[in-house]
Amino acid sequence: MKKITRKWILAIVLVVIGIFLAISVRSSIKFELGNKVSYEVPSRYQRVPSGIMVFCYHRVLKDTRTVRLSEDLSSNSQFHDFNVNSNDFKNQMTYLHQHHIEVISTKKMIQLISSHRPLHHRYVVLTFDDIDRTTVDNALPVMLKFHYPFTVSIITGNTGEYRAGTKLATWSQIIQMKKKAGDLIDFGVHTNNMHYLTSNGTPVFNVPSNFSRFKGDYALSQKVLKKEIGSKTNIFTYPYGSGDTQVQSFLQEQPLKVIYTLNTGIVRRHSDLKNTPRIIVNSNSWPSIKKWLTHPEKLD
Fold first, then answer.
1. pLDDT in tens, 254-264
2. Which are the contacts of 161, defined by CB distance < 8 A and separation ≥ 6?
3. Helix, strand, coil content of the chain in percent (nearest 5)
4. CA distance linking residue 185 with residue 191, whole number of Å
5. Residues 60 and 29 reside in one and the same domain
6. 26, containing H or E segment
7. Is residue 271 part of a domain?
8. 166-167/162-163 β-pairing
9. Looking at the domain assignment, is residue 59 inside a domain?
10. Which domain holds residue 162?
11. Residues 95 and 19 in one domain
12. Name one GO cellular component term (predicted).
């Protein structure tokens, strides 16, 4: 057998093996992801007649081959749970506009709940955690187009760094975003430098021995935010969605109006905004979000 022929046969065999492995990996990932917790809005909330649904976004990625390949071949929940395709994001914002859903700011939500008056409509609040480049590049232009208010929660000590395969926005980019958005933008703090997990998967600020450190970190996050954008904030957003008892107690004592969690739910007339629920928006949750917004179930 000629040397060239052997090379071609070897190349074909390698391609076949590669395709087989890719299919196997993809099937394994789909099985693994299929066993993850659902982000759908639970059925009990579909019967809530009115209120405020707070959307939670992390990354809004352009639909490129690289992104699609990464999503197909990665079992990392970051790709599947916290990423939204930029075209999907545009469609979601368009849906809100076409169905006359009132998108309100965090400030407006505070006013509505503080009034203790009944909520007669279904509102949406847009929030973005971490603030990487995709929020600035891909999400901001869409929100400006529709003149939608939104809240960004910043890891004040990590700006400009790479985290989980993405680059966080720099202060310069955040300030430019503030200039473009004007009164549409609200800021929250997302810790200064305590947005990571310990080796056993516990959020570092929830480790009891780190409580004093967390108190200092919170104070520093407010100080840095004031230095960079000119004011402190009354909004705190938990990394990983919640804090332990002593962290919660400490934050309750701070001059905060809103503490965002990742507890699933809908803000209602008597909700405690220092335990504000949110809905993670992704391809899994969006159909149930649309259902609550525009196809409410009737109460028994």
1. 999 999 999 99
2. 167, 168
3. 50, 15, 35
4. 19
5. no
6. helix 3-34
7. yes
8. antiparallel
9. yes
10. 42-294
11. no
12. extracellular region
- Are 25 and 140 in a shared domain? no
Strand partners, 55: 126, 279
State the CATH number of the domain containing residue 288: 3.20.20.370
Dihedrals phi, psi of 83, to nearest 5 degrees: -110, 140
Confidence of residue 34 (pLDDT cuts 50, 70, 90): very low
300 occurs within a structural domain: no
Say if residue 142 is in the same domain as residue 289. Answer: yes
Query: Is the pLDDT at 204 greater than 50, yes or no?
Result: yes
Maximal C-alpha separation, the chain = 86
User: Are residues 17 and 67 both part of a single domain?
Assistant: no
Burial of residue 287 (number of CB atoms within 10 Å: 0-12, 13-18, 19+):
exposed
Question: What are the CA-CA distances from residue 141 to residues 85, 88, 134, 154, 223 (Å)?
Answer: 15, 14, 11, 19, 29
Please report which helix (H) or strand (E) contains residue 15, including its range. helix 3-34
Based on the fold, state whether residues 29 and 152 are members of the same structural domain: no
Residue 299 lies in a domain: no
- For residues 84 and 5, what is the distance between their CA atoms, to the nearest angstrom? 46
The pTM (predicted TM-score) of the whole model is 0.85
Which distant-in-sequence residues (6+ apart) come within 8 Å of 36 by Cβ?
77, 80, 81
